Amino acid sequence: MSFITRAHLRQDTPAVRNLARLLLDQSDADNGHRLVWTLFGEDPDAARDFLYREAEPGHFLVVSSRPPQASTDIWALETKAYAPAPPEGAAYAFTLRANPAASVARPGARGLRVDAVMHARTQKGGPLTVEEKEAAALAWLYARADRLGVAFEAERCAAAGYRKVTVPRKGAPPAQFALVDYDGVLRVRDPGRLAEALRGGVGRARAYGCGLLLLRPLPAM
Asked: Within 10 A of 99 (CB to CB), how many other CB atoms are there?
């Protein structure tokens, strides 16, 4: 059983506003990470078993393997059971915020993890145009179609908002990664694989708001 939650930061008391402001000021990239963790207890050794995306400041969508608990009293939550079962052949509109990290093969060595957009720049030998950045980001997504159990309708897909973020970490170098926002249309080929991706996420940096794939039915023609 999984759960999907709309989590909204409350804004109705000074104490709540002060706490939210303190957490949000830790780091632009890390704010959602710290806030959403408060919904799942304070055990520092607990494994992360949720995905999230900040839809807009203070408003999060969360998919989790256990229901969140608003123990800090700073949230308003709308939670329901989540058991996606997209039928084979169905088409959906999708959105995804993802870290386009890929592995490049090296002779006699382990694969090298790279930013797919920056790797395209390296291969070109110079800066990319906006169109070339989007093409590199989409190529990363399309390469995962079989793994996700879908076929993307390329003429209806887009990738935008490529940016790099840095997250401070105690006792370790900062985490640095790239984000891209995708939207478009996909068709279901393998319902089991797609359901797994909807519950488990896509790509890396899932602890920082990446990887939550969301579907919605297409409007009737």
From this structure: 21
